[in-house]
Predict the 3D structure of the following.
Amino acid sequence: MLTAPLDLQLLNACAALLLLLSFAMLSQRRIVSLVNLLIVQGAVLTCATLLLAWRTGQSHLYVSAALTLGLKVVFLPWLLHRLIRRLEVYWDTEPLLNVSGTMLVGILTVVFAFALAQPITQLAATTMRSGIGIAIAVVLLAFLMMITRRKAMSQVVGFLSMENGLFFGAMSATYGMPMVVELGIALDVLVAVLVLGVFFFQIREQFDSLDLHHLESLRERQ
Amino acid sequence: MIELSLLLGFPAAGALVAAFFGAGRRGPELNALCSLATLLAACALTVRVIGHGQVLLAHEQFFVDPFNVFLVALTAFVGFTTALFSRPYMRTEVVHGRVTAGRLRLYHAMYQLFMLTMLLALTTNNMGLLWVAMEAATLSTVLLVTLYRTPQSLEAGWKYFILCGVGIAQALFGTILLYFAAERVLGAEGVTALLWTHLDAVKGELEPAVIALAFVFLLVGYGTKAGLVPLHSWLPDAHAEGPTPISAVLSGLLLNVAIYAVVRCKVLVEGSLHSPVPGRMLMGFGLLSLVAAAFFLWRQRDIKRLFAYSSIEHMGIITFAFGLGGPVASFAALLHMTVHSLTKSAIFFVVGHAAQKCGTPLMDGIRGLVTVSPTIGWGLMLGALAILGLPPFGVFASEFLIVTTAMRDEPWTAPILLVALGIAFAAIFGRVQPMVFGETSARRLPHAPALLPVFVHLAIVLVLGLYVPPYLADWYRAAARLVGGP
């Protein structure tokens, strides 16, 4: 088999790292570490975007890389760390499914993701087409994390990780979305986290905790 | 073009001004004034589109055709009447101490921002911007749902945020796939590949395998926002726990915008796949929502939740009709969107007053409204009869068209439709009747509440049921041709 050029190998390594980081998040229960993993994921995503920009010469990818760096590596994690300190939520409680069980489901999810990506991968003309399967896997694993976690903060990390996966998917399939859309998405993510910050304080004020089992009273009242 | 800049400019400016002065004594008037200005801009835009046909603006980023201009006009109109209703309503909430001045400022700023995001979603030609605007619409209403800061409202807000956030993330993935398929036809650089008009022009050449996958994600994503069963669980909470004016715009307007997004996608997908599958999927989701909501209606005790479930039911009917396709069903779906929006917001206005006067949203605590205040009592009764599809109201006309078309095209669905509508009728009428005419010890209110918007809405619905003016019918027909498919 021909050896791929170095930059492509690096890109694939980035993709693999993203998937590994998703699994790491799935098993991590310390919330501070969870946010740190999110920083690393953002950093890997920035590297991948830069490499792709350099390889394809698409200048708008440099802007996306800068946006990713600023938003997902610096600003949002800073905000989340600040929230964690202010609200003093350090540990997630025992997840709904234990770690080994979650991992098993995670592996099945990845297999499913690659099967789902098959028809798209065959059509893609980009150099990064193997990334599409990984992107879907990252999105689904983030989804799994949101389902199995109890603390609001872990769900938010899952939400942001899902956004990372979607971003990587757009990059692998089409070298990113048009600039105006990408800016809009970045703005939405930023506002979402700010709204959540406000929201956390409201939940905290009301319940003295960020545990979501307090938020289970609104069932169908008989 | 000036009309469109004004249409988007007024709510944007209103949000900014309200962010500084919304707490003042004139805050509610400011809100209503901005909404009135938006309505006038929408009217100007409508006149323009009726006169000149569809228009493309700002490097094709904005696109107004008969389909979306009618929703723009409807959104601006209900936005204005809701702002009128919210003026005395929110003042009373401040007097009751449920809302502080600071929160009133947040409320007014977010209200205008919410109008802006909906109008942006309706007028944009870019499928990516449509997604951005839909997400922004969720974000701008999360803090409105939690305005009262009660445990229930916080829970509702959290559910709303997370479920709609996850749902809409699916829609983003669908949009990425759509872009991926389009880029292969429309060329790289992606300047035009997400513009709906360009996609529509080449829809026959888009790769069917990718488009089919994209549609599944788009339908799940925007379907979550439209409250289609089984993606609906956030809807009754979010619509019931927020302040009533917000319930009215969420039920009356935001659901329409979500359906609009689904229909825009469906037009592209049908053109690409040349098969009835997308329509069948819409029909399936629609029927499921209708039937499930009809049964859920029986279990409700909170009046706002009752009507929130009724919104799910009607979204089901509309989705089903768009799924049926063809000019008649699409015409009926558009008419149903209009009359549902007007009737449901009118009902929420009345319900808001009823719950405020009785001091409880629980239906067991609301009795004899007609004795307490005939305006509220008759408003609720007429609103309920209208939404239940009794002639001569407009809902009857659209439901009649939908059922007869279903009998002709898909006969097996007609009994399901009729039975579900019957169950919903019994559930809602059985609850509303004692609330309006039941025994009560409460004394009559000294003066009638200001419920002019309710009767204006119901009057329009009544007129639409008796007689659709020819120019309006032409307009609906033009829109139905655009979305009806082959």
Remarks:
- The CA atoms of residues 278 and 417 of chain B lie 20 Å apart.
- Chain B has a mean pLDDT of 87.
- The radius of gyration of chain B is 21 Å.
